[in-house]
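call fold target=Response regulator
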Amino acid sequence: MTGIRVMIADDSRISRLGLRLLFDEADGFEVVGEAADGEQAVTEVWRLRPDVTLLDIRMPGVNGIEAARRIKAAEPATRILILTTFDDDAYVHGALRAGVDGFLLKDARREEILNAVRSVAAGKAQLSPSVARKVLDAVELPEPDARISALSSREVDLLRLVAEGLTNAEIAARLGLRPTTVKTYVSLLFGRLGMRDRVEAVVLAHRSGLMRHR
């Protein structure tokens, strides 16, 4: 059975090879094509109709942001995940204005990249914590949230760590708990707050001003 159909656009052959190997070794993915620049990416998306297109930003000729704008104009059903080394404010906001569905940094862990592609393919927005922080710091003032005030101090600490982008294993090491215990606590916390994923946790933590008072 065919999995999520992915196209990789990156001017680095090494990066494309690494990503292809990543998806080839994981279940539920099929790399259907590659592109070495933005112009080629637009053409290949039109030809291949992938479910998710991974775009680097800095590429020769047409960059990733302009490619995303063209792809969304021609193939709005194609989901786009920016995967780049750069999280400059101008790039972040330019990409979001172009209509991308996610923005992830290349130093993300293997599972983070795979989960980001799964989320984007499922129609969910996916932002790395640092990118979400830039967006919220630029456009949001802290707003009181009754959900935060109802949390225990331990739950608030847990929410902060999640919003910082720490994995369950890293949170477990920080709090002196087992990773399986942290996984349970995070699941319970998300349920209590009515959140579906970690992106929503980042948004809530920053919007409520929680990350400004550390």
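return ok
The longest helix spans residues 179-193. The chain has a mean pLDDT of 86.
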